[in-house]
Amino acid sequence: MNVAKKKPVHADEFASFMQAFQDMVFSTATRLLGNDRQAEDIAQEVFVKAYEQFETLKESSSAGGWLKTVTTNLCLNHLTRYRKRWRLFSEMKSDDNDDEFDVEAAIDISGDDSVFDMLSAAEQQQLFEQALTRLPDHQRIPLVLYHFDGMAYEEIVTHINVSMSKLKTDLMRGRAALVKAMQPHVERTL
Amino acid sequence: MKNDAQDNQQLIKFVDKLCKQQPLRTAPSTLQLRVMRELQLQAALPWWRKSFINWPMPLQVLFVVAALLAAKLMLLIGDWAGIHWVSSAIAVTKSSSLVSGTEAMLTVTRHVSTQLLSLVPMSVLYTAILAIATLYLLLFGIGVATYKTLYAAR
Which CATH number applies to A11-90? Predict the structure, then answer.
């Protein structure tokens, strides 16, 4: 089968379309999944789907929204499909005990902004992305959906199928853990 | 209590600001190549390996007609088998309606399964069940080992 010679229809136009949206799609996927390699696989799947709808999408002002929704859904499907299996082996212990939570220690953001502003944008981003990746799935996913995708609590509960109280607890712990994970680096830098 | 709520609100605002400040991650340079290669692969696939909606229209129609004929054939076979194999199905299969045909097929399936099971010695049956259970546990064990090796350290 000779596959190399057949160029997809509208290839150049589609390449420009990809160029415009690929960072957004990849960022959404990698923040939700916490894994660059899997995020690239999902991003590929998203753009293959986008190609099937390209006639509509290329003229649409909501193409970005469409891509973001598809990316989020594919990531959540991926996580549901694979992580639940692993959870059977790994997370039979209570989720509530696996991350010792110390609000007092975590929420030390007095004089907050200036501390982080001392770092360069690139350093800050690297630190932030590392801290986000290190969060457990059950904290990172709602945090990304809430703060990056702007989803409401009710919407997140439906998407990830957890109770409202668990969602709020996970979000609170996720935020605290994120700040806590960034603080030592900031203090060292200072 | 009020302080806790205030702290929490402060934390929400802080994290929200932090998240909103973050620039987009740069997609790997390989992504575009991967997508284009995948699209080329898909474009080169023969029609019968693509999803049904991408088949040529005449073939879609032909497939639907063939599927309906196959279903009808199965129902006729069900009727025929009902008449010849199961006495209780005779009355039902006199009409060739969808319901009677399906009923006859189910009756025949049940009858044949029962007969086949009665032919297998019980010792063989128990051994087979034990073997399946052992293999399932083995698979479960491999799953746990794979998880512990590849993911647990993450």
Answer: 1.10.1740.10
